[in-house]
Design goal:
The complex is a heterodimer of chains A (116) and B (114).
Chain A: E1 3-5, E2 10-14, E3 19-21, E4 24-26, E5 32-39, E6 46-52, E7 59-61, E8 64-69, E9 74-79, E10 88-96, E11 105-106, E12 110-115
Chain B: E1 5-7, E2 10-13, E3 19-24, E4 31-37, E5 44-50, E6 53-56, E7 65-68, E8 75-79, E9 88-95, E10 104-105, E11 109-113
Parallel strand pairs in B: 2-11
Antiparallel strand pairs in B: 1-3, 3-8, 4-5, 4-9, 5-6, 7-8, 9-10, 9-11
Amino acid sequence: AQKVTQAQTEISVVEKEDVTLDCVYETRDTTYYLFWYKQPPSGELVFLIRRNSFDEQNEISGRYSWNFQKSTSSFNFTITASQVVDSAVYFCALSEGGGSQGNLIFGKGTKLSVKP
Amino acid sequence: GAGVSQSPRYKVTKRGQDVALRCDPISGHVSLYWYRQALGQGPEFLTYFNYEAQQDKSGLPNDRFSAERPEGSISTLTIQRTEQRDSAMYRCASSSFDENEKLFFGSGTQLSVL
């Protein structure tokens, strides 16, 4: 069965610290997609990244980077030099079947608090 | 519209009443999805449409829940004979044909069943 585990329920850091959010997934499919979404205090869900199972290259976007390792079934998310505006709940998600049909399986989320 | 629009923003109802939640997707988006999010949890898939066709309703918890998208645009999620356990944030999302895995979520409807 497919499953997404975000073991860290809450993380608190001080501004400018680096922080890594962990995501471990389970799937029997060889083709799947992994996602990260951000949910700021305002409540909306904001798409951050999608990665397919055949692309293990790490990705960097500004202060954000993602480390996909199939060997450990992990898709971790690092924020470098964190800022107060990064405070949010971050969700990792998985979809199977060679392309999303919209049936994303979300983890329970990690609440990140960045203190000034 | 500019984003996914959901109404009402908040809905308080009494147990046993029916409710209808509306979603207006991003203009031109082919696919529309309904999710439910309980407090402190990630969103949980309910159902999705491509155009007006309901493709997957495996996430609907029981037959009190139904959804439609008759003209391939606006969708309505209906919950009949509401129960307290139905209280949650109901989120709609849409995606384009070209990037169907990139979901744009609305702000949600917070449903409270008393």
